[in-house]
Amino acid sequence: MLRAAAVIEKLGIPTASIIGSGFLKQAEVITKGLGVPLAIGVYPGAPMVDSEEVLARKVEETLAPGLLMGLTGEAPRAADAKAEPAAGQVVFSGTFDEVQEHFHRQLWTDGLPIVPPTRERIDAFLAYTERKPDSVIRAVPQEGREASTLSIAVTGVMAGCRPEYMPVLIAVIEAMCDPAFRIEDCGSTPGWEPVVIVNGPIVKELDFNCGQGMMRVGRQANTSVGRFVRMFLRNICGYRIPPGAGDKGSIGQSFLVAMAEDEETAREIGWPTFAQDRGFAPGENVVTVHSVVAITSPIYSGGDRAVDHVQQWAEVMGHSFTYWAHTGFKTGLWNPLIVAGPSIAKAIAGEWSKDEVRRYLYEHVKVTAERATHYARMTSTPTFSLEGLVKDGILPPEYAASSDPQRLINVIIKPEMIGILVAGDPGRNQSRAYMGNHMQGPPTSRRVELPRDWAQRIKAKI
To answer: So where are the chain's domains?
Structure first.
């Protein structure tokens, strides 16, 4: 809303935005990043839990006067802009412990010790890209800093990455800076977390884990790349939790280590890889960044028929994902991701293609119209209406084919929205599903650009 207000203000039209009191710190951060003074009216507390009587009183006594003052009174002052170090500037010198304490006080850490980003370490990362250090992908919210090659290298060092990960890190930030990814929503209240998915020969070359324990902290490539994403969002974008601001994840979750696909198994069973599903050629190195707002319990399944396993997926996904389906309905976007254990993928692929799996899930994961409407109205949308969404062209006609509140509707809007990745423990019958946060953080992919002498460099490392 504040970003929209800034655009309108630049056109010479005064605005006043309604902000809940719990979002005031975030509003200050966004206003600073936009560089435009904005007037606001404050609603005390959370309107969703107030009675109609209390809501009316707060609007009359607090919100309305604030809006009126914002539109007619003294012009708002610009947020104080604290001077920041110049790119490449040495910000501190001291012992290892002194560096940790200084960075901690500046809110530049994620609460864990960081690797000091010395000039020598940064240069080692920059040696793995042909981009200039001052090359900028874009300015990123919340605080309007530049996502530059240098900022990626500094963050990679601090997160504990190896220099040879630099091409992957650049591709990750390129994907997150794509307008379709909506990096401006990374600090929204659901507290969703981006997960990085890696495909191609680089999985083995950089020793990403795609087997047993693939989502555990422990393998340097998976862990440090996942930590890098969270640290970049914190330090460059400005998504900090208290005593900082910018990140409004109400409870949130910790960073997710990077995923990698078991492409050898995918090829063996005749399924295209996750990257091929996204339009890339076999053998290309690709990263995809995907929002995760919730994860199912482990899904165990048995049997030698495809349906034995996919039916189990549908049941567990139905229990876990139906509550949040209304967010996908409101936006027309819904991107569940299934990590299929290799043994399960083999059993399914003996009978079904990936598209047949998607079709089954599309047809069998259901929720009643009444429940979907109830969940939407309890969350933040009192005016939620399936009929209205169909009328607006966001949902297909079948969502309003009946007025029966007990009618079953598809949780997954289109079968092609389902992502399927082969990874995990080949010696166990376990899969898992990850739920994306509708239009926030849809799967966004980029090729990994390797330096010309990559093969020689990697050979020398082995």
So the answer is: 2-72, 92-290+446-462, 294-435
